[in-house]
Each structure stands twice: as C-alpha cells, then as structure tokens.
Amino acid sequence: MAGDILNIGGRAVTNRLFVGTGKFSGYEVMRRSLEEAGAEVATVALRRVDSASGAENILSYIPKGCFVMPNTSGARNADEAVRIARLARAGGSGDWVKIEVIQDNKYLLPDNMETLKATESLAREGFKPFPYMSPDLSMARRMADAGAAAVMPLGSPIGSNRGVRTRELIEILIKEIKIPVIVDAGLGKPSDACDCMEMGCAAVLINTAIAIAEDPVGMAGAFSEAVKAGRRAYLAGLPATSAHASASSPLTGFLREGK
Amino acid sequence: MVIRINGREETVDRPGNLADLICGKGLIPEHVVVEHNFRIRPAGEWPGITLKDDDNIEIVSFVGGG
Questions:
Q1: For the segment A137-185, what is each residue's pLDDT rounded down to a tens digit?
Q2: Quick one: CA dihedral A32, A37, A41, A42, positive or negative?
Q3: Is A158 on the interface with B (CB under 8 A)?
Q4: What would the pLDDT profile of A177-209 be if each residue is shown by its tens digit?
C-alpha cells in the first residue's frame, strides 16, 4: 500500500475515501469524523447566508491537510453550476469542483448533458472538474475529453444508502475510461465502499452513511478500513469465480485409502 | 432605495457602500463571498462600491455538503 498514490486533479492523494460534510449534527462531530477517516478530500456546498450563519465558518473545522472540494449543488443548469464554481473559487477553495447539476427532485439524478456543458466551461477556466453523473460510457468519454479530472458516477440515488445498484455500468467505465472513476452517492455500508474499491474504482465519496450513523466518528473509521481493504484486494488481484467447487485441501492421502 | 439581497428586496434608508452593508449585517468578510450585480467582488473592493437603487447583491458562504 505504501507508494499507492492516486494522482488526480494535479494532486497526489493517498487516502481514497473522500468525505462529504453535509447532514452532520454539528461541525465538531464532522471535524472528528474527517480526522478519524484520515480524509484528504472533503466536499462542501455554497449557500446564501442568512443572518444567523455568519459566525461559524465550516472551513475552520476541516482538518489541516484535508483539501476542500466545493460542489455546485443547487445548480439546475450549466450556467448556474459555473456561477457557483466561480463563487466557490473566490471563496478560496482552490481549483477542484464537483459539478452537480440536478433538475429531478425525486431521485436527485444528475442532468448529464448540462453537467457536460459545465465541465467544458469550467475546464476552460482552469478548474479541475469532477462531474457527478449517471454512469453512461459515451457521456463519461465526452467528460474526459472535455477535461474532467475524474468522473463521479452514482452508485444509487443520493442519500439512499442502497449501495452499488449501477454496478455493471460502473465496471464498464472503469475498464474503458482513462481518468479516475470515483463512485459517489448511495453507498450505505462500508462493504459497499469495499466493493467499489475491489472493482477498481480510484476512490469513493461518502457522506450520508457517515453523517447520519449513530456514531459518525466510528462509522468514518469503518469506511476508512473498508476502503483500504478493498484497495488492497484490488491490487492483490482477486481470483476468478467458478460455478463448481474446487477443494482447498489435498484430494490425496485420505485415511480411507490403501485399506 | 430598494436593493435585492439574496433574492429578497430590502429597503435601505441611507446610502452607503458594499462594505457598510456586509458589516452592518454582522457578517465576517473572510467568511462570505459577494456578488454585486452578478460580478464577484473581493472584500478589498467593497468600500469603493456605492449601492444604488435596484442593485442585486448575493452573499454566500460555505456550508456542509456532499
């Protein structure tokens, strides 16, 4: 595992568990969860301030050494995503941006076409776009060509904790796309994250499953171990599966023989 | 004078600049990003921007998100 570096968006990352900062009961438990996960990348959102929100700054609760990736949540089209990304960069968050363009409020499924447009525009402006997308091969290729730093296909709808329901499509992306594939959304259990890493995903992004756990800090640690285990298994090379049994113990020298 | 702040119309009695507006709301400049008439303006420029009728101001900050 030493030396297993993920080079992505102009940075070198060793921890392949990216953590979202939404839905935590408070910034302090969020901070401790990020620390327990050893997170090197954390996502944040941008919102209009209300009169009460001026005092606490979420960025001061993100551990040193953890890189902040703003998302464009709330954007309904490419232009809004670009506007949010520019505001975020002006806020000092750097050049990474998770592009999220959603018009569907029931399933929160991304609009791949508008996401592609935003990816093209933001890459031209020097951003490192990380488009959140439905796992579609031709779209992922276009996003890579447009300058995406990675693609972020969904495992299942945001916050649903349903696991990797798009498995077949994500496996195709991993095989065919040259840029990193990061599964984002829907991973509900550490085993889901482990599964993604065994498949060969470059990283996973987890938010809800950690933030709403009874013990978010404990769950952050569990996800961290699962991601490491899955990555090690992928690097070690998983064995082929078979429809029939294959004995693990020798099939000779049984006591009943030679009687 | 009526200006639109974060999508809501507000009546401002005495004219002032953008810095007065932000600080008057008790906001910490380092914690917010401000758009004035759809243009992002760094805090250093706020004192030089005099508010006018019909101005559109957006004040945003980072929050938790996935």
A1: 999 999 999 999 999 999 999 989 999 999 999 999 999 999 999 999 9
A2: negative
A3: yes
A4: 999 999 999 999 999 999 999 999 999 999 999
Edge-to-edge order in the sheet of strand A152-153: A96-99, A128-133, A152-153
Whole-angstrom distance, CA of residue A137 vs CA of residue A154 = 13
Mode of pairing for the β-strands spanning A96-99 and A128-133 = parallel
Give CA–CA dist B66/B64, Å, rounded. Answer: 7
Instruction: Give the tens place of pLDDT for each residue, A121-130.
Output: 999 999 999 9
pLDDT at A256 over 90: no
Structure confidence by residue, pLDDT tens digits, B7-39:
999 998 877 999 999 988 889 888 899 999 999
- Environment class of A59 (CB within 10 Å of its CB; exposed 0-12, middle 13-18, buried 19+): middle
Domains of chain B: which residue ranges?
Answer: 2-60
The encoded tokens of residue A174 equal 């991993």
Neighbouring CB atoms inside 10 A of A81's CB total 31
* pTM across the whole model: 0.91
Which domains are present in chain A? 6-49+56-236 (3.20.20.70)
Distance from the Cα of A137 to chain B's closest Cα (Å) equals 24
CB–CB contact A87 B33 (8 Å): yes
How far apart are the CA of B41 and the nearest CA of chain A, in angstroms? 9
| Nearest CB to B64; choose among A30, A185, A205 | A30
* CA R_g for chain B: 12
Looking at residue A214, what is its pLDDT? 97
How many CB atoms are closer than 10 A to CB A54? 18
From the candidate CATH numbers 3.40.640.10, 3.10.20.30, 3.40.190.10, 3.40.50.720, the one assigned to the domain spanning B2-60: 3.10.20.30
* CB pairs A-B closer than 8 Å: 98
How confident is the model over A228-239, as pLDDT tens digits? Answer: 999 999 999 999
d(CA A13, CA A83): 27
